[in-house]
Design goal:
Chain lengths: ~325, ~220
């Protein structure tokens, strides 16, 4: 065989230097240690940095089904309301159902959407009693049948300085209160969330005194803007939004909107409400949206509308001043915040 | 591979959460309030790295292991870097560079003021993190200056504590780690000081110990 048929010798610079060849096991071991350290450290840091308020968003839920749509379906015959903003301004369904404060279903914004499966919204009854002539316990289906649903597209301003526009579906709280006829002693309305740590696992921790209690002065409760919501975007409420029944008071901070209500009580004294009890310097009973009264830890002068980059100015009474400012005439809103 | 591989591996690890955050941000996968998510993640990242850097020396004191000293500077600088990113997201994206409101907030609100103070306390540490700065200052002065790290840690934990609304578990955990590390150093410092007389009699021993420490601290 001639020399020519032999393959050419490798070029000098392609030959592994002997010192590398001799240390190959050590170098491979080091590369392994490097990758393992980087991966382990990276995974730990990722875990630590995505906890609490920083956790990544959950997958958006699909639109809740309406079941059989027939003439009797209350969600099939919804009235329009002059108190509503145009639907075109509404925040996307996806954001409204994945960015929630509902500590009973978890402390982060995404936890409620993730944990909502444990809340069973049917069957559901609401007790209405206290200073009323006709106390009653009423089934959610009965409420849906008796009170025609309206779509109310409202601004929703969270005390944390973000906001949304939500197309609620519901009926005025006043309509329900008129049905049970408050006595002349009734001055406040106390509304309470379901207390069941099995369905609302957040109640196993003691971050707040459970159950969640909110309240309104009777004239606030009777105001036509005050809504008992049973749905949004034309569909029944999802657990993370307070299924099956929640309060919506658009000129107040969002925490006034007590979710998954099981009790409505007419009372003589101002109810001791959850956040006002937990941090009285930070959260008042009235909690009217007010750009001139700052939360002790942050300014309330502006807000981030979810979905927009630029902050926008916060309006007195969340833009509903014309309808509700008269309720507070003569009050010092800096003191009664 | 003359340089120490361990701090480089740690640096690569820090790239993981930052890379995931950047990728999610580009893909629009940070949820309904992406600015708040990015802000919170960068803040937690900075705090975790700062607390990790603060546990290096106590860990060495307690266990005798030398590896923490090889990554201390990397951890501290990464904490500062993430803290700067956190502040930039707050200034530019969250507040939209509304300087007047920003200054008012920083002065009037302890929550913001603590965060600003924590970041400012880290500036001299980052500036003097090079070996040359260490040599220029001298070991003793450098170590004294770098006690600021504990102040930065305490301020950062305070900032986080004021951030949460009801559940203080997590900030309390970070605070505990910082406090334990600080206590370990205090106790070690005291026992060393009380042992000074005898060590002096042995002569040179103490010197040798601190020289070794210096070397460990100087190793990149």
């Amino acid at each position: 065989m001639s020399r020519r048929s032999l393959p050419p010798e490798p070029r000098g610079d392609a030959i592994t230097p002997p010192e590398l060849y001799v240390r190959r096991r050590e170098l491979l071991g080091r590369a392994g240690a490097f990758v393992a350290t980087a991966a382990g450290f990276g995974a730990s840091l990722t875990w630590l940095s995505q906890r609490g308020a920083a956790d990544p968003p959950p997958a958006p839920p699909s639109l809740p089904s309406l079941g059989e749509r027939d003439g009797d379906d209350p969600f099939a015959r919804v009235r329009e309301s002059p108190l509503s903003l145009p639907r075109s301004e509404a925040t996307p369904f996806e954001a409204i159902t994945t960015y929630n404060n509902f500590y009973e279903l978890g402390l982060s914004k995404s936890a409620p959407a993730r944990n909502a499966g444990s809340l069973r919204a049917r069957p559901w009854t609401v007790r209405i009693d206290g200073e009323v002539h006709a106390p009653t316990t009423v089934d959610i289906e009965t409420l849906l049948r008796d009170f025609p649903l309206e779509e109310r597209v409202y601004r929703m301003r969270c005390v944390e300085a973000w906001s949304m526009v939500i197309p609620w579906l519901g009926f005025p709280l006043a309509a329900l209160l008129e049905r049970v006829r408050p006595t002349s002693n009734a001055r406040f309305v106390k509304l309470v969330t379901l207390h069941d740590p099995a369905q609302l696992p957040g109640q196993q921790s003691d971050v707040l005194d459970w159950p969640y209690v909110e309240g309104l002065r009777l004239d606030e409760a009777m105001h036509p803007l005050t809504l008992l919501a049973v749905g949004l975007y034309g569909r029944p409420l999802l657990g993370q939004n307070g299924a099956p029944l929640r309060l919506v008071v658009p000129w107040k901070y969002g925490f006034k909107g007590v979710k998954s209500i099981v009790s409505i009580e007419l009372v003589r004294e101002r109810p001791r409400t959850s956040w006002a009890l937990a941090a009285p310097e930070e959260y008042g009973f009235y909690a009217n949206v007010n750009p001139t009264v700052d939360h002790p830890r942050w300014s309330q002068a502006s807000e981030r509308r979810i979905g927009q980059l630029e902050r926008i100015a916060t309006l007195p009474f969340n833009g509903y001043a014309e309808s509700v400012a008269h309720l507070y005439r003569g009050m010092d809103l800096q003191a009664e915040f | 591979m003359n340089r120490d591989w361990l701090p480089r591996a740690v640096l690569a690890g820090i790239g993981v959460p930052l890379g995931i955050l950047a990728a999610r941000a580009c893909a629009g996968l940070l949820g309904a309030n992406p600015i708040a998510t990015a802000l919170n993640q960068l803040g937690l990242l900075s705090l975790a790295l700062l607390v990790a850097s603060l546990t290096c020396t106590p860990l060495r004191l307690v266990t005798g292991a030398s590896f923490p000293m090889r990554i201390r500077r990397t951890l501290g600088l990464a904490a500062f870097f993430c803290g700067v990113l956190h502040a930039l997201v707050y200034l530019a994206l969250d507040q939209g560079l509304a300087w007047r409101a920003l200054v008012k907030d920083a002065v009037a609100r302890p929550f913001i003021a603590l965060g600003v103070a924590a970041l400012l306390a880290m500036v001299p540490l980052a500036v003097t993190s090079t070996r040359r700065a260490q040599q220029r200052l001298g070991g003793r002065r450098w170590r004294r200056l770098h006690r600021l790290a504990y102040l930065a840690g305490a301020l950062a934990v305070g900032h986080y504590l004021l951030r949460v609304k009801a559940d203080v578990t997590e900030p309390a955990l970070y605070g505990t780690v910082v406090a334990l590390g600080f206590a370990a150093r205090l106790i070690r410092g005291r026992s060393r000081r009380s042992g000074t007389a005898s060590e002096r009699r042995v002569g040179g021993n103490l010197e040798a110990t601190s020289a070794r420490e210096e070397k460990l601290q100087n190793s990149p």
